[in-house]
């Protein structure tokens, strides 16, 4: 019984993936469009691109601005959120900026970056930052500003210093929202990196998509897009594991 | 209960600041008006004798929690004075430990870490604080649950963790805000027994907020009865119920029932509109 119950989420997940892939396969046979390959063709192309090192080369290129950008926003964004959550004055200054940024159509802003940062590495880092920062900052802010009052009072009663209170109460209590922000920020960072590669200068995975489209190799083009989804999901899942390990041991499955 | 009152065992008689003969806590003409204009307290005055258990009882919303938090230094009084060992209270201190009505446990920490948290904040080394906390976790009846998380415990068990945390810092004064409000009647009686037994070993001054008259009469050396908000002290009584005969005997004794009735009569005036 217990094993069946524990295995269930996986069964469901596999079933839903199989369903979507089946639908895709069917859509490819119809065909929806000549530019829409069958699922099986795409997966074969996917395998081929892993084998011949196409992905490895492309992701090595994409990873640079992505890692630098996400690291910058991860540290900077959480800090900004912390400061805003802890001090009403910075909250007043900073919060509106990020709310506006989050609501703005980023894809439209990305090309503008080239006017300021040119077409190099810095421009791509900036695109990653632009997309990932708002959600990281706003989530960190919410996590920090909504620390349960009773825990703050408890830490007061037991004589916590300001820093111990932040480190031992405020941050762990907000870690759920902070990490949710980091996960969303990472996913947004992928979008930013690929957008920059599509809209600024073709490199990395963005270049793969552009290139295979131009030569009408649709299975490979779709495999490139699929790879972004896979890599992004895996990174986000790893980040979630890290969170449970670091801050929320009580939520770790036994 | 009076066996816990032993002024001669007070260890810090010589430090001059403290007057071991005087009350542990003095509350003088305390008033509290909350932002927004709620007048909770309006001239509350009482003494808490050293080494005794004093209950504060009164209609709901009369300011019991507020009074306790002012004594703890968690809330500022609008006017009036709280003295602990003759020193005015302005902030929380190591001489007072609080047991919160809503437990205030960290959901991400084990029972042991929660119980040790007061010591952790004071910088006590891990091994030492866990040893102390373990001892109190066992004393409050949670042996075997050291590594459990709060969400795995019942309300009553969580409250015991809060009690262990407060006992572990070894403060002279224990402030308890309706510690048994979240448990049903049968368990509540067992908890009262456990608390009395525990306190008889610990020699502490306890201030205990409750809304149960029976509970107050059963556990207290002294009972402070408060009026409706804006509150004052209606009466301070010392039931002095003879507790030599066991709990069932006490609860059926005429003296006990008489005190319950008298306090009920006293409070009734404030319950009506
Ligand atoms: N932080 C607060 N702000 C405004 N009003 C409050 C606050 N805390 C308590 N009160 C009000 O003060 C009164 C006394 O509250 P409390 O001390 O919690 O009463 P009790 O514990 O006796 O039920 C109530 O009317 C309550 O609504
Ligand atoms: Mg209360």
Can you describe this structure?
The complex is a heterodimer of chains A (254) and B (273). Chain A is mainly α and 254 residues long. Chain A has one domain: MetI-like (MetI-like fold), CATH 1.10.3720.10. Chain A has ten helices and no strands. Chain A is globular, with a radius of gyration of 22 Å. Chain B is an alpha/beta fold and 273 residues long. Chain B folds into two domains: 23-92 and 173-180 and 202-249 and 265-273, 3-Layer(aba) Sandwich (Rossmann fold), CATH 3.40.50.300; 96-170, no CATH class. Helices cover 35% and strands 21% of the residues of chain B. Chain B has helices at residues 64-72, 111-115, 117-121, 126-139, 155-168, 185-202, 213-219, 247-252, 254-271, and strands at 25-33, 39-48, 53-57, 79-84, 87-88, 96-99, 173-177, 205-209, 222-226, 233-237. A six-stranded mixed sheet of chain B has the order 6-7-8-3-9-10, sandwiched between helices. A four-stranded antiparallel sheet of chain B has the order 2-1-4-5, covered by helices on one side. The longest helix of chain B has 18 residues, at 185-202. Chain B starts with 24 loop residues before the first strand and ends with a helix. Classes of the chains: A mainly alpha (254), B alpha/beta (273). The interface between A and B is medium-sized, with 21 and 27 residues. The complex binds adenosine-5'-diphosphate and magnesium ion. Adenosine-5'-diphosphate is lined by residues 34, 36, 38, 40, 60-66, 229 of chain B. The site of adenosine-5'-diphosphate has 12 residues of chain B, from α1.
